[in-house]
Amino acid sequence: MQIRAELTQDISSISHLLKQAFANHPYSNNNEYVLVENLRREHLLTFKWP
What is the C-alpha separation between 36 and 33, in angstroms, rounded? Predict the structure, then answer.
């Protein structure tokens, strides 16, 4: 597995993946992708590796 920084062209694929992952989930409003978009916009979307 390769872990790398998110690229602009990744954003739509990530949103699509999140929409599909939470589709029909009983505890989801299927808007998790909006949370990720908001975190990204505010520069709060981070990943830490040990």
Answer: 5
What is the C-alpha end-to-end distance of the chain, expressed in Å? Answer: 16
Dihedral sign from CA coordinates of 27, 29, 33, 38: negative
Among 35, 33, 9, smallest CA distance to 23 is for: 33
Q: Give the pLDDT confidence of 27-47 residue by residue, as tens digits.
A: 999 899 999 999 999 999 887
Task: Output the pTM of the full model.
Answer: 0.78
Nearest residue to 33 (alpha-carbon basis) of 12, 4, 47, 5: 12
Distance of alpha carbon 12 from alpha carbon 15, whole angstroms: 5
